[in-house]
Specification:
- The chain is of the alpha+beta class.
- It has one domain: protein bp1543 (Ribbon-helix-helix fold), CATH 1.10.3990.20.
- 52% of the residues lie in helices and 16% in strands.
- A two-stranded antiparallel ribbon has the order 1-2.
- β1 and β2 form a beta hairpin.
- The longest helix has 18 residues.
- The radius of gyration is 15 Å and the shape is globular.
- The N and C termini lie far apart (32 Å).
Length: 102
């Protein structure tokens, strides 16, 4: 098994964000906050707008988990489709894309 090297200790940062008119707290590791800011900037969105988009598309689970999965998916798509830019898709668009892959 290949070792990936030392894993730095991750600091969880809790922030209050306003989503759909309600105040909620989101706890994420610092690397996820930084990644989320990079993604928002790349798509000319504010952090609040991106979090609201993620919140509106999540099917279940808490918002912190949905954000982590979104960031993971964003970077996985960057690796898989390195020549195609990541596009924000609705759940319906994603389902249609997935059904076409089979």
């Amino acid at each position: 098994m290949r070792r990936l090297g030392p894993h730095p200790k991750s600091t969880v940062i809790k922030r209050s964000v306003s989503v759909a008119g309600r105040l909620t707290s989101v706890s994420l590791e610092d690397v996820f906050w930084k990644s989320l800011k990079e993604i928002a900037s790349e798509h000319d969105m504010t952090l609040r707008e991106l979090i609201a988009a993620i919140d509106s598309e999540r099917q279940h689970g808490n918002l912190s988990s949905a954000i982590r999965l979104f960031v993971l998916d964003f970077y996985r798509q960057q690796i898989t489709f390195s020549k195609r830019p990541y596009t924000l898709r609705t759940a319906d668009e994603e389902a249609a894309r997935a059904s076409m892959e089979w």
